[in-house]
């Protein structure tokens, strides 16, 4: 009911196209991916937030994924013809309106943040929802917009600007603690100051999925050109092998750019000395080698952003590449992001 109601709010916003909805049972969190022109995209995100405000109660929320609010994070991603600085203004418009219209606390992150100690999600979300009431009382954690009074059923929201992010989970036959141990080895932050991990632009934690009876290394790749998905996957396999643990595949949360899938395909083509020329065959090779269908489906037409835009069909979106799509909706088009390309994330 809640997931559908928020979907309807986004879908009903003129000028906005809802591309994907990706709920997670154990994480109790849903990623919404939608695109549109600068004015419409703010309205779509606000419409989603207003429904979430009515239906979500964070005092009752539990889930494996770190979170601090009902609308946990709403990033805006410049896709084409717009600078990060211009998108910062879009995110600030959204943050200011969200704080004013709902009476909640809003933080800026990424390119929109002006404070080095609160640039990243792990920095801002430290302590999670349970610590927000005390955190808001500290001068250094005063929100960028809105009240310093804790709103229990909402928590707080983060918004800002960043590059494409790939949310990527690696499946393991292991305990939560073993998965987290490997996550600490991989993630850029590592185990703390002076103990950096091996992969740049990588955030990671370990958790356990009760419904699947497996552990996962939950990875956010903040720049897949620096650390591609296949590198994260292969590095996790190396560490798992040293612990005599099995890696059984992986999954993408939300959408993923075609370039990231083709990166993985080219790696396995070279590694295995394969002869593959067709794009669709490369896509299927990457899906197979990364095990993207082991615990959930992965339909390229529904999960790869370029293919997803083609599927929307009709008018200016029909048979469009990402570049053509962006040109068709506006000369300057930011999109709100989470998952891979454009999304609003709510903890549900």
Tell me about this structure.
- The chain is α+β, with helices and mostly antiparallel strands and 348 residues long.
- The protein has 2 domains: 2-163 and 327-347, 2-Layer Sandwich (Formiminotransferase-cyclodeaminase, Chain B, domain 1), CATH 3.30.990; 166-256 and 258-303, Alpha-Beta Plaits.
- It is built from 12 helices and 11 strands.
- It has helices at 2-11, 38-55, 84-102, 121-125, 132-135, 176-186, 229-242, 258-272, 279-290, 300-303, 305-311, 322-329, and strands spanning 16-24, 29-36, 71-80, 105-110, 156-161, 166-173, 202-209, 214-221, 246-253, 333-336, 344-347.
- The strands form 2 sheets. Strands 1, 2, 3, 4, 5, 10 and 11 form a 7-stranded mixed beta sheet that branches.
- Strand 7 (202-209) and strand 8 (214-221) form a beta hairpin.
- The longest helix has 19 residues, at 84-102.
- The relative contact order is 0.18.
- Residues 314-348 have low confidence and may be disordered.
């Amino acid at each position: 009911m809640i997931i559908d109601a928020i979907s309807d709010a986004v879908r009903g916003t003129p000028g906005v196209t809802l591309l994907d909805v990706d709920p997670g049972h154990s994480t109790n969190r849903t990623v919404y991916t939608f695109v549109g022109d600068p004015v419409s995209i703010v309205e779509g995100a606000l419409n989603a937030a207003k429904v979430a405000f009515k239906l979500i109660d964070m005092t009752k929320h539990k889930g494996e994924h770190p979170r601090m609010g009902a609308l946990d994070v709403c990033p805006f991603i410049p896709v084409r013809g717009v600078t990060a600085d211009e998108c910062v203004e879009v995110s600030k418009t959204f943050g200011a309106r969200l704080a004013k219209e709902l009476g909640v606390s809003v933080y800026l992150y990424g390119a929109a943040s002006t404070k080095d100690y609160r640039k990243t999600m792990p920095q801002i979300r430290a302590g999670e929802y349970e610590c927000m009431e005390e955190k808001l009382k500290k001068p250094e954690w005063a929100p960028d917009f809105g009240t310093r009074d804790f709103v229990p059923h909402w928590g707080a929201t983060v918004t800002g600007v960043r590059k494409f992010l790939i949310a990527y989970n690696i499946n393991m036959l292991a305990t939560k603690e073993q998965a987290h141990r490997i996550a600490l080895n991989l993630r850029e932050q590592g185990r703390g100051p002076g103990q950096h991990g091996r992969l740049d632009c990588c955030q990671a934690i370990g958790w356990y999925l009760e419904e699947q009876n497996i552990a996962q290394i939950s990875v956010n790749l903040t720049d897949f050109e620096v650390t591609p998905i296949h590198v994260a996957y292969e590095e996790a396999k190396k560490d798992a092998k040293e612990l005599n643990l099995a890696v059984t595949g992986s999954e993408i949360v939300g959408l993923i750019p075609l370039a990231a899938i083709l990166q993985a395909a080219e790696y396995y083509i070279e590694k295995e000395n394969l002869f593959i020329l067709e794009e669709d065959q490369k896509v299927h090779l990457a899906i197979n080698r990364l095990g993207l269908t082991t615990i959930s489906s992965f339909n390229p037409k529904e999960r790869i952003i370029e293919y997803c835009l083609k599927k929307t069909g009709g008018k200016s979106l029909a048979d469009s590449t990402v570049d053509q799509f962006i040109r068709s909706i506006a000369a300057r088009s930011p999109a709100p992001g989470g998952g891979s390309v454009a999304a609003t994330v709510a903890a549900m």
